[in-house]
Structures are given as C-alpha cells and as structure tokens.
Task: structure prediction
Amino acid sequence: MTAHAIQLERVRLSYSGKAVIETASCTVRKNAVTAVVGPSGSGKSTLLRTLCRMNDRIPGFQVEGQVQVLGRDIYDPGINVYDLRKRVGMVFQKPCVFPKSIVENVLFGLRFHATINGKNFSERAEQALRDVFLWDEVKDRLDDPAHTLSQGQQQRLAMARTLAVDPEILLMDEPTSALDPKSSRAIEDLILSLKDKHTIVLVTHNVDQAERVAEDLICVDDKTICHKPCHPLPGEGTC
Amino acid sequence: MNRRLFKERTLLIALYSLTVFGCLVLAVILATVITRGGPALSGTFLFEEARNFGLEGGILYQIAGTLILMTGAALVCLPVALGSVLFQTEFLHSPPLKKIFRLLIYSLNAVPTIIFGLIGYLFFGVFLEAGVSWVTGVLILAVMILPTLHVSIHEAVESIPDHYREAGLALGLSPGQQMRAVVLPQSLHGIITGTLLGLARAAGETAAIMFTATAFSGVRLPQSWTEPVTTLQTHILVLAQEAANPIALTNAWGAGLVLLTLVFILITATLWIRSGLEMEAER
Amino acid sequence: MNTRSLFPERGPAFWGTGFTALIASGTIFILFVSLVIESVPVFKTQGVSFLWGTDWFAGEAYGALPMIFGSLMVTAIAVVLVFPFALGSAILTSEFLNGRLRLMVKAAMELLAGVPGIIYGLMGIALLTIWVRDVFGLIDGNTLFTAGLLLAVMVLPTVMTLSEDALRAVPGEFRDTALSLGLTRMEMVLKVVVPQALPGLAGAVFLGLGRAMGETIAVMLVIGGIDRIPQPWFNLFASGQSIPSKIGREAAEALGFDLQWSALIALGLVLFVMVMALSLAGNLLLRRAR
Result:
C-alpha cells in the first residue's frame, strides 16, 4: 500500500475542449487534511469533483492523464463508479437534505450498500450522528423532518449521511461557505476529529481556515496547480 | 453489487423501449398518412374543386378555406395577444394580479375547443348576426389560439435582459415609446413562433368550426361576410364517416396528407427558429 | 391600495393594451356566464335530474349521465394507458439523454402534439376500430376502449413534456448528493428525483386528463355514439358517448334556441366545470413544483 490516497499525474480537465485545469500533478497523503485553495473560478471544485467522478453527468466534460484514487486509476473503464463513490464520499457547499426524517437522511446512502439488519441500522445512524457531534442535539427528535434543523446542523447531518456509508476519503467542497462563523468553527473542529480515520480533501476560499485545519496545501491558479506542503514531504518540490 | 447494476441496465432498457415506442407513434402516423394519402395526390386533386360529395375532383376550395380561417384567426388574434402581453409585462406590476392574469390565460388554454364553438356561435353567429360563416369561424379560432400566442410572446418579452429596458428608461422613453423601441423588436422571435404555432393550432382544429363556419358541398370562395367556407378538416370528417367507401377513404387520406404537411411545416418552422435562438444563446 | 399606484402612467398605450388584456382575461368569464345563462331553460324544465337522468331523447327527455360517465371512462382509460409511456420517456429524456438526442425526442413530441385531431380520428375510424375489433374479437370496434386508446396517444406529448419539465425542475444538488453517496443513476432517479417531482408529475397528469376530457373530433368518430351506460358499467368494450362527442354530433341540428340547444349547452357547462377543475389543480401543482 502506498502512503498516498490520491495521486494525479499530468491531469487535464476540460469542458467541450476548453481547459479548466491545464495540467495537474499532485498527491494527497493518507489520513491527513489537504486543503485546496485558489481564487474563485479557478477550477478547485471541478478538480475535487473529478476525484469521485461527479462530473460524469456533465456533457462535454473530459479527463486526460491519470487520476489514481486508493491505488486505482478511477477513469479506467473497468472501474465500478458506484463502489468508488461509496469509498470516496463528498460533502457539498450548500447543505442538501432530502425531504425525509433526520434518521432517514442519515441512513439514505447506507440503505443502498449495506446488508445489515434493522437493529444495526439504528446503531449505525447513532454512530454517524455521534461522529459529527449532532447526536445530543437530535436524539429526541430523530423522526422530525430534516429541514427543521438549522443550516449548520443540516451540514453536519449531510456529513453524517456521508460518514454512515463509511468512506475512506472525504471530499468537501467549501462546506462552511453557506454557514455562519459559529457553525463554521464547529465544522472545522469536526474535520480535525475525523482525520484519524479518514483522508480529507477540503476545498476552501478561506486561507485562514486552510491554515487552521490542513496539513498540506494545494494551490490552484491559472489552470495549473502547485503543491505546498505545510510540512515538507520527502521527494516533493514546492513552487 | 452486480444485482444493482443488472437492475440499472434492465430499467434503462425499459425506459428506452417506452420512449422509442412513443416516438414510433409519430412514425406510424406519418407513414400511414403518406402511404394512404399519397396515391390520392395529383395535380387535379390539389387544384380542382370537389365534385360528387368529395368522391371526385379535388380539394382546392378546402385548402383555400383552411388557409382563410387560419390566417384570418392569426391576424385577428395577434394584436389582441400582443396588447394583453404588453399590458401584463409593462403595466401590471403587482405580483398577485400578474399571477391571476396568468392563471386566467392558462385556464383559457384548457377550455375544450367544442365550447369555443358553442359559445362562439352564440356571440358571433347570433349576436353579431354573422351566422354560420367564415367570419364566425375566424373569430372563434382567434379566441381559441389566443393563449398559444399569448404564452409564446410573454415568454419572449419576459426574457428580454434588464439592461435593454434600463437603457430605454434612462433615455426617458414613455411606456408606449419603450414598447415600440425596445420591447417589440427584442421579442420578435416570440411573436413569430407564437403566430406560427397559433396558425398550426387553428389549421388542425375541427370541432370548433364544424357547425359554426363550414358547409360540406357546393361551397367555393366566400363572396360576402356571412357565407360559410369548406375546409380540409371538415372535408376529412365527412369523408371519414363514409369509411366503407374506399374512394371516400382515399380522398380523406389525401386531404389528411395535405393538412398534416401544412401543420408540420408550421411546427418545424417554429422548432427551427427556436433551436437557432438556443444556439445563439449558447455562444 | 389605490389604483393610481398600481398603474402610474396612463397614456394611450395603457388604455390600448388594457383593452386587449381585458378581452384576453375576460373571455373565460364570458364563456362561463354564457354557459350558465344558456343552460337555464333545461334546468328549469328538468331540474337537477338533468345530471343523473339516463335517457336522452331530443324533444322529450334530457339526461346527461351516460355522457358524463363516458367522458370519465375514456379519460380514465387514456391516463392509465399513457402514464407509463409518458413517465418513462420523460425520465429518460430528462435524466439520461443529452444534447442532440434529447432535442430529437422533444421535437418528436412537439410534432406529435401538433397532429390535428381529425387525423387521429381518421386513423381511428380507418384502422384502430378494425384493429380493436379483430384483436378483442368484438362485433363492433367503436368502443369506449378505442376512444381511450386514441386519447392516450393524443395526450402523450402533453403529459410527457410537462412531466419532463417537472423532473428537470428538481435542483441538481439533490442528484449530486445522491450520486456522491454511491447510488446508481436509476436509484437516484427513483428514490430522489421522482419523489421530489411528484407534485409536478401529478400536475402533468391532471392537465393531460383535462386535455383528454375535452377532445371532441377523434373521440366522436370512434366511441360509437350510443347514449347509454354499458352493462355492466365496467365493460370497456361497449359503445358509449362522451360529452364533447354528444355536443359535436347534435350541435348542428340543434343550432338555435330550443330546449335541445339548452341541453347541449348544459352538457358543455358540466364539461367546462370538470375540465376547469382539472386544469386548475394541474396548474397549481405545477406551480408548486417550480
């Protein structure tokens, strides 16, 4: 097993021929928090979405080069993309909860993957909610509709839903940009607590936030990316 | 996992079959009308008048009647539709009133066409004393296609970018000047596609005109306001009821082919204009 | 609120467009009021029994029930038949097709929507009735089922196009979230997109029902034109009559002011109320979906 969770080699991303990322080569360490920073519109989100093939749905989107995630080229035709997305979870900018109860939201993804029985489902839901420090706030109203939660709680619920599937890598696309400062800090603490078990890639436009939570930094600018490890890694240059 | 992918494939194949079947209906209609109506078509069929109750001769005056009714309806309807759209977009500023106005137009669009025929006859035929005549038909169809034109023009006007309007307002244009200088030129495509769709709808309508505007035989071009016309639609209707007679049926298919061609030309033109606009918007 | 603030400028443009707007918005009321006024005579002579009378003999008795029944029946048949096709092709077009293919399906639907009713009627009388007769071993192919089948084809583009709009109105975030959790595309559609689009899909069906209920000419040619409720009532393969078909057949002979005309108008009123209810419900559901 390599120490790298993600490895990009000369990756070019384009929409109908127009390049969003001209060339990207970088690595992401296992069980660390890597922040992707850069000006808005620089292709950070596109890069992140590429890592779990969320861009497949967009007509005209093209990937060249090699995108290795968890040791496999994920754009290999033999890859099972649904299995990949189970192992590489993603949390989005705006908290997006389904019009169902809180507990059903947590279990939404799990129900499609797991072959466990009903009792274990509630255990898994509790564990996931505890992981995101939401359990104490919602344990008495698990069957309430999820949209009754605050924005910050909804975002943590979305993370619990992703964690319930038990992904190895967690991709986060500006998860705090729609939240107030207090909820943002709660999410940041949460990220720090998760890095023991998960590899986390966090896109953010907030450099302070990147410094607070991330060990490694990837800068995206002018269609290229450069690696700036905060703690220098052997064999890797800086720019 | 394999079971999931298998389910995915199976359902996708099912969706494709349902869609292909739906589109096949169009192909079947086209193929049927062309193969059955084709043999009837000839120079004499298109350019001679019907004789012997449609069993001999052609459909010259039926074509003329359909054209008269549909163009008449569009001409009457266009100013009304334009005016009501402009009132809605330029003068009606309160959201609830706008909503109600929209709902009224949508409701008018849902009214069964036969009801336009019934009440239209009362109004135009009896009160305006036009009787069973082409004028009654034109007016009834004009009311019937009003929502079609209205919705199409409204969409175009609503999609005019704000900076065009602001440019006009900044120059101190009155609402009337604003309409002429900014709104109308910018929504021309909606006016054209709406009119084409309205023409197609009027050309395809039978129920509203069959007892209010048309006569079956012995009719040529109307010489006065109160004369009926004969149309392709009603011609087919009468011939279809004699389905046991193969000649009647062939001539019905022939008239059907002409009518379908006319309607499809109009719709294809709107599709063509619209797709051209979409491509322009993408650039 | 005073009217001045609603309409600040009142030039000729205001009055001109206002007049046309009055025509456009007032027509629906004129239609309704005229239907009510003109149907008064038949309700006066027959009372409300007009609605549930089962006999219709011009000049003697006017009972609307067979026509109301026939209308409901053919509409129900149409919607049951069309729904799988409309929903299936809407899902495929909205969720799985891109670019040119999607445009082609939409163009086909638009052309299909434009096929004149009389062409459907001709196809019905010359082909469908015979086909239904032979396939189901009937003596006469002019049945409620034939009319329903024809209507299903006629409202396919309406229901399909509106359903597709409803599906596309579901925000992309829900799709992204579902996919990011490892759902397959079909699971995403069935568990996330369709449930969210449900009000819009219901609206599409309601508007389709309204369209089917008001269709005259094609139904008139294949329904059989017999004013009776089939025995037993659920026998779809019997001839029947729908409201628009009845009006279409008798309007020419009744044109004028006697009781038969009033009875036809009253039928029109019943139809109008039913269709308006469906259309209103459909439009409100569609609005909620957006």
Remarks:
- Chain A is about 30% helix and 25% strand.
- Chain A touches chain B through four residues (CB under 8 Å).
- The domain at 4-227 of chain A is CATH 3.40.50.300 (Rossmann fold).
- The longest strand of chain A covers residues 4-15.
